[in-house]
Specification:
This protein is 43% helix and 35% strand.
Length: 217
């Protein structure tokens, strides 16, 4: 397996230089640990995804091994504080939050024992995503309180608008009823006037007729 040495060295150097790259892959031997540095701001969420493939002599290629285990360790170099130490299967994820800004060592290695298989040569794919800084909880609470107050004010204004609309509808209904009543009275008054005029004209005509008949006599 000497053909793996030169690619192994070149890729490892590329990993150290390009620590800020999103996706990388490198090679590990059995029970070997590889680390790289990542400069991370404080209170920042970091997510990593790795996938390990084991060299298969019979197939002459890297294949998945369900029994392969990966140990992930993350340390703060400034304080020596261990942030993460977890074991996972050959394809898994890890997440942590930085407590202090500065360089962090992200180390991966294969493990054996406790149902973990021993692998001779491993190709390990790693994708590290540095997320956004955690929000200030107090600021979030105050912001939520402010939004709640604005929402209550908005609900109160909506309730006032609803009452005003209801009042306007009631006024409109009363005005419509009054208008219909007034129009109805006006119609009846007009009809009464017409009847009175017809009766008056009839009476006058009859009176005039009698007057002229009496004069002829």
């Amino acid at each position: 397996m000497t053909h793996l040495r030169k690619p192994h060295l070149s890729i490892w150097l590329l990993l150290l230089i390009c620590a800020t790259s999103n996706a990388l892959h490198f090679y590990l031997d059995s029970n070997e640990k590889r680390c790289f540095l990542e400069e991370i701001p404080s209170d920042t969420v970091v997510e990593g995804h790795y996938k390990a493939l084991e060299w298969n002599e019979k197939e002459a290629k890297y294949v998945e091994n369900q029994g392969l285990g990966i140990l992930v360790e993350v340390d703060e170099l400034a304080t020596g504080h261990n942030v993460v130490k977890t074991r996972g299967p050959h394809d898994s994820r890890f997440t942590f939050t930085s407590h202090q800004s500065g360089d962090h060592a992200i180390c991966l290695s294969t493990v054996e024992g406790n149902n973990w298989s021993t692998a001779t040569h491993i190709r390990l794919y790693l994708d590290v995503v540095v997320g956004s800084t955690k929000s200030d909880r107090e600021h979030d609470r105050s912001h939520v309180s402010e939004l709640s107050a604005k929402l209550r004010d908005l609900n109160q204004k909506l309730e006032d608008i609803r009452r005003e609309q209801q009042y306007q509808r009631e006024r409109e209904s009363n005005f419509r009823d009054l208008s219909e009543s007034t129009n109805s009275r006006a119609v009846w008054y007009s009809l009464a006037q017409i009847v009175v005029l017809v009766l008056t004209c009839t009476w006058q005509l009859r009176h005039l007729k009698r007057f002229f008949e009496d004069r002829k006599m």
